[in-house]
Amino acid sequence: MAGLKAPNRDPPEDGGLTRTESACVLSAAILGAGVSFFLASPVLVADGTEFERWAFAAALEAYGKLDVLFNNAGVMTSGDFRSFDEAAWDGVLNPNLRGIYLMCHAAIPHMPERGEGGIVNTSSVMAFLTKLGYEAYTTSKAGIIGLTKALVVSYAEQGVRANCVCPGWVDTPMNRRLAEELGGMDKLVPIIKQQQPLPRMIITREVGNAVCFLASGHASAITAAVLCVDGAALAAI
Q1: Is 63 considered catalytic here?
Q2: Which region, left, alpha or beta, applies to residue 178 given φ > 0 means left and ψ of -120 to 50 means alpha?
Q3: Domain 18-165 has CATH 3.40.50.720
Q4: Which of 27, 82, 94, 165 qualifies as a FRET site for 208, CA 20 to 30 Å off?
C-alpha cells in the first residue's frame, strides 16, 4: 500500500449504529497503480449512518478517483424458520445484503462520471445450495447476486462492471470456530468432503486471487458473472 495517506476527516460518530462483535464491513477501494485504500469497521448497517459516504469521501480525498469497490462482509446464523423472528432475520440480511447495497449506492455515482469502474461482491455457494435452517443466509447471498446483475444492466453502458465471487468452505476464523465446536478439524474435514470434491478448505488467498482477477483489466469483458471458488461443490451430487 505504498503511497497511502490518512484522510483528513474522522469517521462519523457511531451513535445509533447497529454493531456486532462477529463481523465487520470490509471494503477496499483499489486505486491507481496497485495502491489500495482499505476501510474496515465493525459497523454493519444502520438507518441514517453516513459511514459509507465518509468512506468514499476519504478515498476520493486521498487519491482523487475510485476504481474498484470490493464488498466482503457477512454473518452466518441459522435456526428453525418458524421461530426465526424479524430481529434474527434482520441480523443476517442487514450485514449480508443491506450493507452491500449501501456501499454500492455510495460508490456508483463516482464511477459513470469516469466511464469506468468495477465492483466485486462476495456472495456464497449457499446462494445455490442450502441446508435446513439457513433461509435467511441463503436469501441474503442470493440477493447479492441479483443486485450485482441488476447494477450491470443499469450501468454497463457507462463503463461500470460488477461481478460476484461465491466461495465454498474457506479457512476462516468462523469455520475454525465451527471445527472447535465439532471437536476438532478432523471432525469437520469429513463434512467438507461430503459437500465438495476438493478434500480441504479453500484458503483466503485463493478467493483473493479470484477477486483481483475480476477487479483487473484482464476481466474487462467479464461482468454480471458469478465466479465460484467452491472446490467443485456445485458440480457434486
Answers
A1: no
A2: alpha
A3: yes
A4: 94
